[in-house]
Each structure stands twice: as structure tokens, then as C-alpha cells.
Amino acid sequence: MRKIFLLLLVPFLYLSCSTEPETEDVAYELLPISEVQLPANFNVNKDNIIKIKFVRPTECHAFNKFYSEKNGSTNTIAVESTVFKYSNGECAALQNQNVATQNLKFKPTETGEYTLKFWKGKDSSESDLFLTYTILVE
Questions:
Q1: pLDDT tens-digit profile of 54-66?
Q2: Distance in angstroms (rounded) separating the CA atoms of residues 39 and 10
Q3: In the chain, how many domains are there?
Q4: What is the mean pLDDT of the chain?
Q5: Stretch 22-51: mean pLDDT, rounded?
Q6: Concatenated DSSP letters of 71-111
Q7: How far is C-alpha 41 from the chain's CA centre?
Q8: For 88-96, what is the mean pLDDT?
Q9: Between vectors from CA 105 to CA 127 and to CA 108, what angle results, nearest 5°?
Q10: CATH number, position 87
Q11: Does residue 10 fall inside a structural domain?
């Protein structure tokens, strides 16, 4: 019985060890939001879906999550992407401004006015630019 166990264990250990170096590295980057589609009404304690469009600059950029920062009734939101950096340096640019859409679930806990600020990049002096909306939650 021991011999059979060892016979099965040796190939498993051999296959589980890789001598090849890692071929990719990962970084995170904020991508500018180009368009926001808000629902007509916002409801308290319910998921309100906001459609967010952004441009993926290369095939190495993939949506990771929404970055969100809350300060009172003001919410600042950005798209965080995962950027795969391959060891061969190849990362093809996407043609035709590859616009991606992701849904953000916004669940306000109180009624009243909220300010939503969506990061749309930086200007020539490196100041942050935002698409800003004031919404009423009922």
C-alpha cells in the first residue's frame, strides 16, 4: 500500500513544482469615467443601479472594482483597473476607444440630497476633474 501511495505522490510533487519564472506582474490604475447614466429616482435602503462608462486604453487593462470615498453626503467614485504587465512588454492598444460599461450599486441609507462625484481624469495642471451630480433620495 505504501508503495502505491509513493508511486502516486512522486508524479504529483513533480508536476506541482514549476521552475519557470512568473511571466506577468500586476498593477492597479484609476481609469477616467467618460459617461454616467443615473436612474430617474433614487430610493433609500435599496440598490440603485448607476451605469458607468470608461475607456480601456490597452488590452492589459481589466475592470477590478469601483474605488469609493465617502465624506458626509458626498461620494467620490472612480474606476480601478487591474493592469497586467507582461515580461515581454507587449500590451496592444485597443482600437476605436474601447468603451466598457460597469454597473455600480449605490445604496443610500438616509433620505435627502447626495452629491456624487465621478473622477474623469486630470487637466493639464494635474488637477482632478469630476462629473458631479446632486441627487435626491426618497
A1: 999 888 899 999 9
A2: 59
A3: 1
A4: 86
A5: 91
A6: ETTEEEEEEEEEEEEETT---PBPSS--EEEEEEEE--SSS
A7: 25
A8: 73
A9: 85
A10: 2.60.40
A11: no
Q: Is residue 6 part of a domain?
A: no
Q: Is residue 71 part of a domain?
A: yes
pTM for this model (two decimals): 0.78
Kindly state the cell numbers that stand for 12.
504529483
* DSSP symbol at 22: P
- Give the torsion through C-alpha atoms of 107, 111, 115, 119, to 10 deg: 0
Phi, psi of 99 (to 5 degrees): -90, 125
Count of other CB atoms within 10 angstroms of residue 122: 12
Distance, in Å, from the CA atom of 125 to the CA atom of 35, rounded to the nearest integer, reads 22
The answer on pLDDT for 109 being more than 80 is yes
- Say if 5 falls within a structural domain: no
What is the C-alpha separation between 123 and 116, in angstroms, rounded? 20
Which residues form the domain of 42?
Answer: 21-137
